[in-house]
Amino acid sequence: MDKNSTLGMLLIGGIIMAYLTYISPSEEELARAQVIQDSIEQIETKKIKSSEVSAPETHVQSTIVDTLKTDSVSITELGFNTKQNAQNQYVTIENELIRVTLSSLGGQVSSVELKNYQTYDSLPLILFDEAHSEFGLKFFTGNQRITTSELQFQAEGESFVVANDDSKSISMRYYASPSEYVEYEYTLSGNSYEVGTTINLVGINNLVASNIVDMDLDWTVTALPLEKNIKDERSKYTTIYYKYAGDEVDYISEGSDDDIKADAKIKWIAYKQQFFSSILTAETAFHKPISMSTVALEDSAHVLKTMSSTLAIPFEHSPTESFPMSFYFGPVDYDILNDMDDEYE
After folding, report:
1. Closest by alpha carbon to 148, among 129, 179, 170, 174?
2. Where are the alpha helices (DSSP H) in the chain?
């Protein structure tokens, strides 16, 4: 390489160094650029987080709108809260013959005492108690199954005692809202073993699933021993009797467990023991399908047999619907039952 070539290379190298010195960003400029880039990234991150937060809000609004649609509404969201921790409250209604205790849990009859009778060992005669009975409606609201025996009702009235020709009523209500409720209205007169029981459904017509034409009414009693010979009382006398509407009376054999389905409407159903019965009678009739079962509890010295039924009551999606019934809690006495004119005897 000659002097001219060497000189040329040095000049070119100098030019390149000068370009890099004056054209390339300084360390200060590089730091400033990094700050700007970091700020941009922070802004983008906030945008992403903001969009993630706002998405559930949009979903919640959508859910609220969907909840208010009457053909898919969940009663639980509107006030039928099955996860309640309220302590049970009790009211009693009684006359000369019976003392009936009503529980806020399910608004149901929780126990019945026959005041003029005792068990074989001179204890108060309790037909059934809260631990061994359950009564209530079951129905769907959209895809939510409601069981009223799990709900806390409130008494619309106070405990009372009636006598002679007096009569009085009390209601147990579960409010879905101030104008929407399920009600059991109980009426007791003096010197009577009957308790009038009317189911009133008010304002829930748009809440119940639109395909519902009947509501299930479940009633279960595990019979308590009242006589000395528990084995005989269980296997020879305790069972279910029932009467078809406008037709004959039938029953499940006392000596064996069974699970049957009635093929027609039922007028009444009786949980019978040796000398006493609990009978539920419809003013019209219970609709089919209807199932009944008995299960003997052979190994127990404290209970006899579990008697269960699932009845059906009509539901027409009207603003107010009522289904009148009555309970009979009393002795298996021919004269008393014959006077009631429902072929109980």
Report:
1. 174
2. 3-23, 27-67, 75-78, 230-232, 334-339
3-state secondary structure 257-275: CEEEEECCCEEEEEEECCC
Q: What angle do CA 295, 299, 305 make, to 5 degrees?
A: 30
- What gap in Å lies between CA 345 and CA 335, rounded to an integer? 8
Report pLDDT digits (tens) over 275-289: 999 999 999 999 987
Count of beta carbons in the 10 Å neighbourhood of residue 297: 14
Pairing state of beta strands 320-331 and 276-296? antiparallel
The pLDDT tens digits for 304-318 are: 999 999 999 999 999
CA distance 108 to 155: 11
Taking the CB of residue 104, how many other CB atoms lie within 10 A of it?
A: 21
Q: How far is CA 316 from CA 90, 204, 234, 323, in A?
A: 32, 11, 40, 11
Predicted local distance difference test score (pLDDT) of residue 85: 61
**Residues near 73 by beta carbon (within 8 Å), at least 6 away in sequence:** 67, 141, 142, 206, 207
On whether the CB atoms of residues 285 and 245 are closer than 8 A, the answer is yes
pLDDT of 314 reads 95
The contacts of residue 260 (CB under 8 Å, 6+ apart) are 252, 291, 292, 293
Distance CA 339, CA 193 (A): 12
User: CA-to-CA distance for 183 and 109, rounded, in angstroms?
Assistant: 13
Per-residue pLDDT tens digits for 151-178: 999 999 999 999 999 999 999 999 999 9
